Amino acid sequence: MSYAMRSLVEDDNRYLKSFRLFLECSSEHQCMQDFIHVILPDILASIGEGKANLNVMGVGSGAGEKDTKLRLKHLAVTVDNQVVEPSAQQLHLYKVLVSQKPNLDYIKFTWNKMTATEFEKDWREKNYTKKMDFIHMIQMLYYVKDPCATVSFYQSLLDKKGKLLIILVSDESGWGNSHSVTTGDIKTYLDSKTVSYQSYELPSQIDITECFTEGDQRGELLLDFLTEVFNFSGTAPAGLKARALELLRHPDCSKEVEGRVIFNNTLGVLVVDPLQ
């Protein structure tokens, strides 16, 4: 029997479990950390030049695992960090992480329990004029109605030497033929506005083998994350579930390696400059 499908993000516990399983089954976390530690610091070296205080914003920061690993080459400055995250559970985990991390005294955290859209509405209503030196939107544009409009708004908050970091699945990944927004969509938008940006590709993959075993709990949990639907296996009509599994296994999306089904989850990174 099929029931009404609902978004996975409506259930914090299920989302967190599925996300942790996704990280376990994929190389995404490692390739992202390599980029953040090795490549990003040099890209961001020019932001806030000459300033004693930097304004930073994380949109969709989750539990802060990536935020607290971002390294800026401005060791002598203080940082005002706006955290925008709608999940109370994720914000709590972020605060716990901050309390356990040494040497973060130079950062002042402001906690905003809001979606990206709610934060934008609040910012506009209060007519804030504060400018940001660095804004990052990591794996969150899937959850807004109009990704390009969201990018446009947050780009407008950048100071003259600021940078907007966007990380999404690449159009070269297995998601390129799906309905999911990719960096290809954002690049098309930025090109239409003649906005300057830098682009990077981060090869990544996911072992999705268990998704094809009926009744496998890990497979069902991973399917929830991949489809962004709560209990997808139990609520999706049979035809839709069959099409989803067919797409995931399609040669354009996955390859078989030693009996395992490996999905192409290559990430795209965009580092966007301010409006001129």
UniProtKB/TrEMBL annotation:
Gene3D superfamilies named among the record's database cross-references: Vaccinia Virus protein VP39
Against Pfam families, the record matches this protein to:
Methyltransf_23
**The protein's name in its UniProt record:** Histamine N-methyltransferase
Q: Which GO terms describe its biological process?
A: methylation
Recorded GO terms, molecular function?
A: N-methyltransferase activity
Species of the source? Oncorhynchus kisutch (Coho salmon)
Entry-linked InterPro entries: HHMT-like, SAM-dependent_MTases_sf
Q: Which UniProt keywords apply?
A: Methyltransferase, S-adenosyl-L-methionine, Transferase
Subunit description: Monomer.
Keyword match Repeat: no
Quick check: keyword Ribosomal protein in the entry?
no
The residues listed in the UniProt record as binding substrate, with positions renumbered to this chain, are 28, 265
